[in-house]
Write a structure and sequence with these properties.
The structure is a single chain. This protein is an alpha/beta fold. It contains six helices and 14 strands. Strand 12 and strand 13 form a beta hairpin. The N and C termini lie close together (12 Å).
Amino acid sequence: MKIAIIDYNAGNVRSVKFALQRLGVDACLTYDPDVIRSADKVIFPGQGEANSAMRHLRDRGLDRLIPELKQPFLGICIGMQLLCEHSEENDTPCLGVIPLRVKKFSGTGGLKVPQVGWNTLTLTLTQPDAAVLPAALENQYVYFVHSFYVETGDYTTATAGYGETFSAALHKDNFHAVQFHPEKSSLAGASILKAFLEL
């Protein structure tokens, strides 16, 4: 099985590679469109700022490639946000795969922004296939680091709350995405990566 991790200068890609190695899978880090297109599965992680991340994708032609991919695809953290239509972070047009918007946390109730730390999941499962979210993840803790969040909508498969209720996971067609970091979320995170690899 050939797993491609999209490397686009957006941090944390190696930690995802190491998490997959712990599951016995060796993935390649790449921004080569041909390698990504031919992979059995694609993972799109990232940390950082939306506008610069989109610029790196455009420079490599990945902004056109990603929406056309047909194999199982997993976006992580900013990789989830970039799949959406638009981010309030520096007024950034994103990839438009999932018709939702990315908003900035308001800091309601004196909550610190960014949200950094563990938070629980509520599975909504509005999609018929939320295969990367095993039912046992209900109310489990996963690890978040983010100042921006995806609004909830028809493609939301799990939510979390931090002042606002937001999408913790999304699913549309072959595209799956999580706002939290499965590679840093202990056994809960490992179960998500394992479920994705088994799609």
